[in-house]
Amino acid sequence: MRGKIRAFTLIELLVSISVIALLIGITIPALGGARETSRRLKCLTNLKGIGGGFQVYFNDHKNFLPRVSPLHGSGGPGGGNDPSLLDLLADYVDAPTPRKGDDGYFIVTDPYRCPSDRASEDAELGFEPKWRTDGVSYDYPPGIFMDFAEGIFVRNPAYGVTKAYENDRAWPIVTDAGDWHKLRSTGSARNALYYGDLHADWSMDINDPGLLGPFFKDVVAFGGGIAP
């Protein structure tokens, strides 16, 4: 006589579905975190590639930071005539320079494109990622500082900022342009390439008033003071 085939009861089926749903709920965030970790590591690799170009530039220019606009096409108080970060890196990074396509957006390859730069919060630009609208996913803080120093009439902003960096090397020269790497509960969500040994790691908060105050005192002192 053949034995009876035991079927799942409704309760057992619901328990099984609940366990599967729980496992999926645990697994999907873990996979998402792994993907973002991978993207962050790729971003750090990009920054190290850009750092190689900066190293060659520093060797040619006695470790002085270049006086360039922070982003492609952007200009400071000088009227926008300064060369851009991309103009500079074109001569020092062995990679295609970002260029505009027929649609008006940039065509960008490594190392200028962070893989986590996937969308912006700018509705006027169609929420396009930074690399598509600006040609690069990264900012150049020294250019921002030089623009500000020029705006407050520091006599030699490029010299002042470079010497301030030398005085405290724990400042980034390239950072993510957005908070894209949300892997930590505290601290910055950006990567950065640091002056000095050109290591890539989490960015410091360059907007921290407690850090900016002493830094700009150095910029003014090294830059020859404020012009009358």
Helix content estimate? 40-55%
> What is the straight-line distance between the termini?
108 Å
The residue-averaged pLDDT reads 86
Low-confidence stretches: 73-79
If helices are DSSP runs of H or I spanning 4 or more residues, what is the number of helices? 6
Q: Tell me the Rg in angstroms.
A: 24 Å
Order of helices and strands: HHEEHEHHEEEH
Q: Give the overall form.
A: elongated
Counted up, domains total 1
Largest sheet: 4 strands, antiparallel
Number of strands: 6
Strand arrangement in the largest pleated sheet: 3-4-5-6
Structural class: alpha+beta
Strand content bin: 5-15%
Short summary:
The protein has 228 residues and is α+β, with helices and mostly antiparallel strands.
What does this 3D model show about the protein?
There is one protein chain. Helix 5 crosses helix 6. This protein is elongated. The chain has helices at residues 10-60, 85-89, 130-134, 141-151, 157-167, 209-222, and strands at residues 99-100, 106-107, 138-139, 172-176, 191-194, 200-202. With 228 residues, it is α+β, with helices and mostly antiparallel strands. The longest helix has 51 residues, at 10-60. It has one domain (12-91, 138-222). A hairpin with a 5-residue loop joins strand 1 (99-100) and strand 2 (106-107). Mean pLDDT is 86; it is low at 73-79.
Give me the secondary-structure topology.
Blueprint (H helix, E strand, L loop, with lengths): L9 H51 L24 H5 L9 E2 L5 E2 L22 H5 L3 E2 L1 H11 L5 H11 L4 E5 L14 E4 L5 E3 L6 H14 L6
Antiparallel strand pairs: 1-2, 3-4, 4-5, 5-6
Helix pairs in contact: 4-5, 5-6
